[in-house]
Write a structure and sequence with these properties.
The chain contains ten helices and 19 strands. 17% of the residues lie in helices and 28% in strands.
């Protein structure tokens, strides 16, 4: 086997280094542990997100976030130099020279604020942006009793929402649906739905490629109003929030168990493909040589468990498979062709919206 070539040739998978911009909330230790990295002496406790293969920048907090490849080049420049090989011809035709996806590892070192993300229609109308921020959480680790919250339990009219946001107290969280989560859960959060992630959860997060958040809770996190409300007047920003109710049946439709997949199958609930896709690849069988082959795609490839190998239809990894293990993150270009995963290993491929790339 071979260690991974650190060039970014368009037929070769590229191993991605840590990319953890400073954020206003705490976390990051679980990301380092998952990635097999030591805790740095200067770790500031505010590195709760690892932005994987990112062409997106933070809305505030310094504007960091774009991925640099091993030679120091920025990912957007590399994609623009050979978009068809990286993204596939159909994708480029449909979406241009952008992945249309932001993938993160997120470690909640504390409960996140209650917030919501605009949907596409609001973003186009008021933020001059084609993308909102529908997102999905693939739970990799969770402490016992860990909880997330999604959607209002009962309808909250605009005046009541404004009062709750003005009060900045625990009534906001209490108005949401609590969901206890454990490893293997996946949860879809449509644009507009208010939500929060509780302390003690490590998720692999897929989302539309923006950093647009309306922070319904913001004072306890020290956020200025311009940051909290995307530079919009507060009443306009609050129009982006779904007033509910999000019923039990509706919540059930937003959930899936990704650990139930054997072979290859979807990691996320139905209804995500127009925004992003996630595929579990998990070889089965008694033999250590058990293998699963999946079609070509631009894929942020995260090894979430075990050890194995990854080979590709084209490039050096065709003849010399790459050793992979839990915590590895590989960017696999469309030009690498089909991908074969072998061994006692579980991989999740995070990919652009459906209907854009073909094998």
């Amino acid at each position: 086997m071979t260690s991974l070539d650190t060039t970014h040739q368009t037929h070769e998978p590229t191993r991605l280094a840590l990319n953890t911009p400073h954020r206003f909330y705490r976390g990051g230790e679980r990301i380092l542990a998952f990635r097999g990295l030591p805790l740095p002496d200067d770790f500031d406790g505010h590195r709760p997100e690892d932005w994987l293969a990112s062409t997106t920048r933070l809305f505030a907090e310094g504007g960091d976030g774009v991925t640099q490849l091993p030679d120091g080049s920025d990912l957007p420049e590399v994609l623009a130099a050979d978009p068809t090989a990286w993204l596939g011809a159909d994708h480029v035709t449909a979406y241009g020279v952008v992945p249309g996806l932001l993938t993160k590892l997120l470690d909640s070192g504390e409960r996140l604020p209650v917030h919501a993300h605009p949907d596409r229609s609001f973003a186009k109308a008021h933020l001059d942006c084609d993308n909102g921020k529908t997102e999905a959480w693939i739970v990799l680790e969770a402490e016992p009793g860990a909880t997330v919250w999604v959607g209002f339990r009962e309808e909250v009219d605009p005046d009541t929402l404004a009062e709750l946001v003005e009060a900045q107290d625990e009534r906001l969280l209490a108005a949401l649906n609590p969901i206890q989560v454990q490893r293997g859960d996946a949860v879809l959060v449509p644009g507009g739905q208010p939500h929060a992630i509780g302390e003690g959860v490590l998720v692999l997060e897929l989302q539309e490629p923006t950093d647009l958040s309306v922070m319904l809770e913001h004072e306890r996190f020290g956020l200025e109003e311009a940051h909290a409300f995307l530079g919009l007047d507060r009443p306009l920003a609050l129009r982006s929030v779904d007033h509910g109710p999000l019923t039990a049946d509706a919540l059930a439709g937003l959930r899936r168990r990704w650990t139930d997949v054997r072979g290859a199958g979807p990691a996320l609930p139905e209804g995500t493909d127009e925004y992003f896709r996630a595929q579990v690849v998990r070889p089965t069988g008694e033999s250590p040589a058990a293998a699963v082959t999946v079609p070509a795609d631009f894929a942020v490839t995260v090894v979430v468990d075990g050890r194995g190998t990854l080979s590709t239809e084209h490039g050096a990894a065709r003849d010399t498979p790459i050793d992979i293990a839990r915590g590895d993150v590989l960017l696999v270009p469309h030009g690498a062709g089909g991908v074969c995963v072998t061994g006692d290993v579980t991989v999740i491929r995070c990919m652009p919206p459906a209907g854009a790339t073909v094998a």
